Amino acid sequence: MSGSPPLPSCDPPTEAVAESVASVRERIARAGGGRPVEIVAVTKGFGVEMVLAVAGAGILDVGENYAQEMLAKVPGAPGGVRWHFLGPIQTNKVSRLSRVVHRWHGVDRPVAGDAIARHQPGAGVFVEVNVTGDPSKHGCRPPVTAALVDLLRERGLDVRGLMTIGPQGDRRASRAAFRRLATMADDLGLPELSMGMSEDFETAVEEGATTVRLGRALFGPRPGAGPARR
Ligand SMILES: *Cc1c(COP(=O)(O)O)cnc(C)c1O
Questions:
Q1: What is the three-class DSSP state of 125?
Q2: CB of 214 closer than 6 angstroms to any ligand 1 atom
Q3: Where are the domains of the chain?
């Protein structure tokens, strides 16, 4: 028994991706009781063919972590794609990114907000919160989140909500982190929550996610050559 042979490289990924999209949508609907949840398809580490495949399956929100990689895919992608920038924001990249980015998910410092406000006035942003205080992670600490939200609003940015990366591999810790983020957003009057990835999106939806960011659940394992996960 040797399993199914690998797909020939000329085989379009469209069909497999469409099946994954359908199954993910079903799982979200079950977890969220039918509430609308936006799926951002995370194509980092994959080629632009995955952008085309997922757009063909009806998902036009596409996320990338790295400026170069995102900008390289834009010309080959369908015009209707809404690009979400998920990575840490390097201020020297904001000018070029601002021509294409629809939402910035990784705003965790005032300088990032200043750069975005300068190049894309009124842009839609998420404040990334390091809920668990893990020193290896990006995101602002919970106690300074309110002040950062205020500052971004003063800069004229459209603060959509909060974003976090859940602790991977521990369901209960993920749930606790998502619940904390939801409470913080509620306290700040922010309507949106960008939380949940392939490993934990159902938990995130149960805790009120309005946007989930999915890579492997849609596309399978990232090719080894691509940039590693954050
Ligand atoms: C890579 C990444 C994702 C998607 O991760 P998967 O585990 O492939 O679903 C989502 N959000 C951020 C910020 C990421 O870096």
A1: strand
A2: yes
A3: 14-219
Which ligand 1 atom minimizes the distance to the CA of 197? 9
137 lines ligand 1 (CB under 6 A): no
Would you report the helix, strand and coil content of the chain in percent, each value rounded to 5? Answer: 40, 15, 40
Q: In the chain, which residue ranges form alpha helices assigned H by DSSP?
A: 14-32, 48-56, 67-73, 94-97, 110-119, 142-154, 171-187, 201-206, 216-219
Pair 158, 189: CB distance under 8 Å: no
110, 97, 178, 161: which is closest to 140 by C-alpha? 110
Pairing of strands 158-163, 82-85: unpaired
Q: List pLDDT tens digits, range 48-85.
A: 999 999 999 999 999 999 999 999 999 999 999 999 99
Tell which residue, 160, 152, 230, 151, has the closest CA to residue 194. 160
Q: Under CATH, which architecture does the 14-219 domain have?
A: Alpha-Beta Barrel (3.20)
Three-state secondary structure call for residue 38? strand
pTM above 0.90, yes or no: yes
Cβ of 205 less than 6 Å from ligand 1: no
145 lines ligand 1 (CB under 6 A): no
C-alpha 125/C-alpha 86 separation (Å) is: 10
Spatial CA neighbour of 139 closest among 181, 190, 171: 181
